[in-house]
Design goal:
The complex is a heterodimer of chains A (122) and B (184). Chain A is an alpha+beta fold. Chain A is 46% helix and 14% strand. Chain A has one domain (24-120): 3-Layer(aba) Sandwich (Glutaredoxin). Classes of the chains: A alpha+beta (122), B alpha+beta (184).
Chain lengths: 122, 184
């Protein structure tokens, strides 16, 4: 049985890591979550990104959501903003593709070219 | 949309855009009357009568990036093909309530789908907004309220903390599973 008491333990345990997350100097991963994105499968993509961020303990990665950016036929769209680098837009993302984006681009800095908007829209 | 939970995720975003700080989502499954009723209620900007009449038209949207808005028309179509309807009640500066009804056993009714992931997505997407999710099956009720969680967490720890999200996930899964008699 899940109880509110467990939340108090989580609070005590996480107080220290929170400051890292608050700095927000790290990478931002943004998922398009408008009608088009949701219908195309953005929710499982968002869930798999969250799981991967947690699994690898990526405290400086912020996962955010945005609305429709006007390219509905390419949804689900994921944008990666690394500090000091150009934004990278990934299109037609699936949960499996999202795992590679987190592992290779966010963690190792290697852009997954074949999933980017330049390569994906062919 | 493959799941009704995805419609809920989509339509609750309208509430967030309307600057609501409290969004109440309720799913009421009445198997005796064979009805499924989903309501989404917010305390956002609201709309006047004229706007309410127009939002069911797919060529009306408040966004500026495109000229179509499909969230409400898609939900309306989903209701209508299951002998149901979509009602919108709204008052300027008070809020908006959407009530979607379905015949529960209708062959064309999409499954409710994963409400846990829908709630988690909403919570991550709108850090400052409170959500209440009530699920009723034949008068048995499960209630989830982010205000209670915030209270237990204190002011510093956000809901988007991975450990907190995990807790919420298990809490909702457990609550829904209990409602369904141990089956998720």
């Amino acid at each position: 049985m899940k109880t509110l008491k467990e939340l108090e333990e989580i609070r005590k345990r996480t107080l220290e890591t929170i400051n890292v997350r608050k700095d927000r100097t790290g990478t931002r991963v943004v998922v398009g979550m408008a009608t088009c994105g949701i219908a195309a499968g953005a929710r499982p993509v968002l869930m798999s990104i969250m799981d991967e961020v947690k699994k690898n303990n990526l405290a400086d990665v912020v996962v955010a959501q945005t609305g429709c950016i006007g390219m509905c036929r390419l949804e689900p769209i994921v944008e990666v903003y690394k500090p000091g680098e150009d934004k990278v837009t990934y299109v037609k993302v699936t949960d499996a593709k999202a795992l590679r984006i987190i592992n290779e681009h966010v963690m190792q800095g290697k852009i997954v070219e074949e999933y980017t908007i330049g390569a994906g829209d062919k | 949309m493959k799941e009704l939970a995805l419609h809920i995720l989509d339509l609750a975003q309208n509430s967030i855009t309307a600057n609501a700080d409290l969004v109440r989502i309720s799913v009421d499954e009445n198997l005796t009357q064979d009805t499924l009723t989903i309501s989404i209620e917010d305390n956002g900007y609201g709309m006047d009568e004229k706007q309410v009449d127009k939002v069911k038209d797919p060529f009306v949207t408040s966004r500026t990036s495109r000229k179509v808005g499909l969230g409400i028309p898609l939900m309306l179509a989903a209701c209508q093909r299951c002998e149901g309807d979509l009602r919108i009640e709204s008052q300027k500066n008070v809020g908006t309530k959407l009530i979607a009804t379905f015949k529960h056993s209708h062959i064309d009714r999409a499954p409710l789908g994963n409400m846990t992931d829908t709630m988690i997505s909403l919570i991550i997407g709108a850090e400052n907004i409170n959500f209440v999710y009530i699920h009723i099956i034949n008068q048995e009720e499960f209630c989830f309220d982010t205000r209670e969680i915030r209270q237990a967490l204190g002011e510093v720890v956000p809901l988007s903390e991975p450990d907190v999200l995990d807790w919420i996930k298990s809490y909702i899964n457990e609550g829904l599973s209990n409602l369904r008699g141990g089956v998720l």
